[in-house]
Write a structure and sequence with these properties.
Blueprint: H1 2-21, E1 36-42, E2 45-46, E3 60-64, E4 67-68, E5 96-98, E6 101-109, E7 123-127, E8 132-142, E9 147-154, E10 165-171, E11 179-185, E12 191-198, E13 207-209, E14 212-219, E15 228-235, E16 240-246, E17 261-266
Parallel strand pairs: 1-8, 2-8, 10-16
Antiparallel strand pairs: 1-5, 3-4, 3-6, 6-7, 8-9, 10-13, 11-12, 11-14, 14-15, 16-17
């Protein structure tokens, strides 16, 4: 009885507080959740020889028509000039909701100065209801024309089995031959091809794997030599991942920022 009395008093207090605050005490969401979603990658590379620490590929903010889709947090009250840098995924890798329809997707320079908001890419796309997408800046940045290549792929997720993990391969290296991604389990040594051979701007299907830690590599058809490799990548059961090849395939340095690299980004 004592517990019931406390609960009654607490309920009355809550009602009183809500009455005192009026409608402002309850958040009202009146707009529908956007029907499509898109993720943004800044994987364009320098068209000139890079240093070990910097790239000439500018940082950008991503737009759909004139709607800004990505941003960097600012505490100054003015827009941050940092943007999404080379090798980064916009909004910390989170999808941005967007209404289905036709858009021009662009990456626009974020740095302050005369080139601010200059688009380095313009890609006409049609986004369908209920679909997820990934948009890539890729290829070699032309510092004179201030342009870079771009493409978009659909993220066609499989039905999720929470006892397994799912991985696919996207090739964003403009000067590579078509490659196949392989995942070698570090415990069992079992090696699995992640889909078929994938050309530049291509995306393979999501392939199921047992959860675990894997050594990744890409190879050209008929070759046993790894074109790119990355060790000890963890894949968690119930999650979906995209492995994207980025960089300049001709660079052999192990420290240059534009070296060929296998990026691991979780889709969900």
């Amino acid at each position: 009885m004592t517990m019931n009395r406390y609960r009654s008093i607490a309920s009355l207090l809550c009602v009183g507080l809500l009455s005192a605050c009026g409608d402002s005490a309850v958040q009202k969401i009146t707009t529908a959740v956007p029907g499509s979603a898109i993720k943004f990658y800044n994987f364009g590379v320098c068209g000139t020889t890079p240093t070990t620490t910097t790239s000439c590929m500018p940082s950008v903010n991503f737009y759909a028509n004139d709607r800004k889709m990505t941003a960097i947090n600012s505490t100054s009250g003015t827009e941050s000039s940092l943007g999404t840098a080379y090798t980064a995924v916009g909004n910390n890798g989170i999808y941005s909701g967007i209404a289905p329809g036709q858009y021009t997707i662009s990456g626009r320079m974020s740095a302050a100065g005369p080139d601010k908001d200059v688009p380095v890419s313009n890609t006409a796309v049609t986004l369908l209801d209920g679909k997820y997408y990934s948009y890539y800046l890729s290829g070699f940045y032309d510092a004179t024309a201030k342009t870079v290549d771009s493409f978009i792929v659909e993220d066609d997720f499989p039905a999720i089995d929470f006892s397994t993990t799912y991985v696919r391969f996207v090739n964003a290296i403009a000067n590579s031959n078509p490659m196949t991604l392989f995942a070698k389990n570090t415990t069992t040594a079992a090696e699995t091809p992640i889909g078929a051979e994938t050309a530049y701007k291509g995306a393979g299907a999501f392939i199921s794997l047992p959860g675990g830690t894997y050594d990744l590599s890409t190879r050209y058809t008929g070759s046993s030599t790894n074109a790119i490799s990355r060790t000890a990548v963890a894949f968690v059961p119930g999650k979906v991942y995209t492995i994207s090849a980025r960089g300049d395939i001709t660079i052999t340095s192990t420290t240059a920022i534009n070296r060929p690299f296998l990026d691991n980004t979780a889709n969900r």
